[in-house]
Amino acid sequence: MKCVLFKRSRVDDFVVFLYHLMVITCFYISPSFAEVIAELEPIEVISTSPLSTSSIDANQVPSRVQAINATEIEKGNYTSITDVLQSQFGGVTSNAAQNNPLQADLQVRGFTASPLLGLPIGLAIYQDGQRINEPLGETVHWDLVPTDAVERMELISGANPIFGLNALGGALVLKMKDGFSFDQKQLAMSYGSFQRSKLSLQAGGNENGFAYYINAKRLKEDGWRDLSDSDAHSFYGNLAYNKADLYAKLSLQKTNSDLIGNSVSPVELLEQDYAAIFTAPDSTENNLTAVGLESDYWLNDDFQLSLNGYYRKLKADAFNGDMADDDDEGDDDDEDEDEHDSLYDAVNNISGRDQESYGLTLQSTLFDDFISRQNQFTFGLAFFQGDSRFKAKVQQAGLDPETRSTTTAGATTGPYTDDHTNIETTNQSASLFASDTWSLTPQLSLTAAARYDRTRIELNDQTGEQPELNGNHQFHLFNPSLGASYQFSPQFNFYASVSQSARAPSAIELACSEAVLELAGEDEECRLPNAFLADPPLKEVVARNFELGIRGNWNEMTSYHLGLFHSTNKNDIIFQSTGRATGLFKNIDKTRRMGLEAGLKVVFSRLETNINYSYLKATFEDDFFVLSPNHPAAISANGDASADSIRVKPGDRIPGLPEHTLQVHSRLSVSDNFSFAVEWLASAGQYLRGDESNELSKTPGYNVFNFKADYALNEQLHLLAKVENVFDKEYYSFALLGEEPDEVVGLEELSDNRFYGPASPRGVWLGLRTIF
């Protein structure tokens, strides 16, 4: 048997070795064509569109797919969706940029999903067919996802056009519980370190084709760092109908959260006190109301119609205390200047976002043979609109020398500066998409897909003082994909695909692009997320992805996956910082993310072990200057006296992304009543944001171990235990270059401007889960 694989250039020696290993495997391990798929037992199916009702055999999907169900999520006793992904899914990392368990940055193959405005979002997230990337900056607020209400979670990696804008690195599809899948009443609670308490109530049931499901949850903690308390409570519920040829579900979600994320601190300060914060507070309040309707109707045995509609309203308020820049301190003259500086040595960045979004997707799926071969054809259209109102202002304040927190309200606060914003944005997208999976032979499946997106982003200044901000931008692109999978035997499946996906610049990026310097003057810059400037257009980011891999089941106890991927972003958008809380966006020619993913699952008697290893080489593939005035090697990029830039060359690594990661999750069922799990998470170091030229050392790598246990007193009552960071290791998953820390009162002895995001120390929680 001969396999033809497409060899890629510029691959590291290690990846080349594995490429040849896969070729040899194709030649010598694959058995005869005579072995047919029909002899295999049924396996799991994977979503092939934003509406999870459209699905195919996982082995027919020409890319890596990973999934986890509610039972496995429940066993893990996870705090958030990002915890589940980092623990169970290969190729996934997260960092402590905000240092809050509900505000992590998530990366898949070097593409990001984050709650922070301004980060380049490269993942599309769907909850029961609802797109939950928020319209203003395509952000994803993990605190708004009801983790306990998730029935199944699927990660489809790669640039998949079917999932629409931002699916550059993949798509995450969440299917929520209903009363048909969850027919019981359950109460779970836990309490432990950092005064973190968690209470979750679920109830579901069905009768005569009707069902209900509700989930109410609250998580509250003081936090392990100073001044870091958070509180989040949510309600999710739905009513469902499933009878004859119709399934319909109406859902309601209401979530309120008040989160503190105190972010990074100077490395020298953390060496003195690991829990210390730099400046405070840094709070975010989210208030979400969402309504959704999904339905599936079978016209006959071969034709299904699906409809999904939703409405989301999110109000988000942020309050960030920070040290003052020179420009923030006003223009007081002579004798008043010293007194002014002593009163106002800090600022409060205050912002509010009101976002409303709604969407509608209509999809048809035909299950019918084509030329006497099994075929599944999906066609759909989608419409999305998000309207946002963004207000921000900067207030002069004092800094408490003991806590380094700013004055927050009342007469002690100072006047507002000229940095203020009031803008309305509209993000509108209309799409057509189609996908076809054709079983050319019992072993060979071909998949072709495409999506056309037409996007309009409108910005309107409401202050009357920034008319140059007004703009109407349109983007449109046709994105195709083509792939194949071949089932050589029950033990060996080969897949390969080429695909393209895209994302339009967000309103944030359009309003803060680099070209604003030419329109607004050299001193203008964007204080994210607190001020916008003029909006010269940015180009749409286009990701072209190639991947191939092998997967299968060696026997009933062992399954495996080994894959290579190669993704190039054309016109990628990066944020270049001025070194303070300000900066600008710019297009660069291209970036590249390539690497290897390997997974192994072994089930032996009562022991189950999952191992995932990922190698990622994420590089800039352009020669350019980027702002980084706090870099010790900064030079002048344009010949003036300002040393504010560094030169990036092709091959320089993208900061913030570790090259090697390893996840090992092993669960032992000691008896029918008692089981425990051990997790090992390991990561190599990463370059600091602001060191795009890779001239400084990386952060240290780390190894961290977690422990979880479940003891069933009876069928109704379970005792739970969880220990995170068992050996209490101090480590850092995020880092950047900042201003000199000695400018903050009380820190005059510090000189190192490396700022690290400390990960959580050891935490112990005990709990119980009872089923009524």
List keywords for this structure.
mainly beta, disordered N terminus, Maltoporin, Chain A, 7% helix, 52% strand, single chain, 772 residues
Tell me the layout of helices and strands.
Layout: H1 13-28, E1 45-47, E2 55-57, E3 65-69, H2 70-76, H3 81-88, E4 92-95, E5 105-108, E6 111-113, E7 123-127, E8 130-131, E9 150-157, E10 170-176, E11 185-192, E12 196-207, E13 210-221, E14 230-243, E15 246-260, E16 265-266, H4 267-272, E17 282-300, E18 303-323, H5 335-343, E19 346-367, E20 375-397, E21 416-439, E22 444-461, E23 471-489, E24 492-503, H6 507-511, H7 516-520, E25 526-527, E26 541-553, E27 558-570, E28 573-577, E29 582-587, E30 590-604, E31 607-620, E32 624-627, E33 645-648, E34 660-669, E35 674-683, E36 702-712, E37 717-724, E38 732-737, E39 754-758, E40 763-771
Parallel strand pairs: 7-10
Antiparallel strand pairs: 1-2, 3-9, 4-5, 5-6, 7-8, 9-10, 11-12, 11-40, 12-13, 13-14, 14-15, 15-17, 16-39, 17-18, 18-19, 19-20, 20-21, 21-22, 22-23, 23-24, 24-26, 25-29, 26-27, 27-30, 28-29, 30-31, 31-34, 32-33, 34-35, 35-36, 36-37, 37-40, 38-39
Mean pLDDT rating: 86
The number of helical runs is 7
Structural class, judged by helices and strands? mainly beta
Unreliable sequence segments: 1-42, 329-335, 515-523, 530-536
Distance between the termini: 56 Å
CATH topology: Maltoporin, Chain A
Largest sheet: 22 strands, antiparallel, barrel
What does this structure look like?
The protein has 772 residues and is mainly β. It has one domain (182-771): TonB-dependent receptor, beta-barrel domain (Maltoporin, Chain A, Beta Barrel), CATH 2.40.170. The strands form 7 sheets. It has a 22-stranded antiparallel beta barrel. A hairpin with a 2-residue loop joins strand 5 and strand 6. The relative contact order is 0.13.
